[in-house]
Amino acid sequence: MENQQFSYEFLQKLLKCKAKMLSGGKKFTCETCGKTFPENVQLVRHVRIHTGERPYKCEHCDKTFTEKINLTRHIFTHTGEKPYNCEYCGKAFSQRFTLSKHILTHTGEKPYHCEYCGKTFSQSSTLSKHILTHTGEKPYHCEYCEKSFSQSGHLSQHRLTHLKPKSYDCEHCDKKFSMNSTLVIHRRLHTGERPYSCDCCEKSFMSSTALKIHQKIHKPKKPVESEH
Question: What start and end residues bound the annotated signal peptide (predicted)?
Answer without folding.
Answer: none
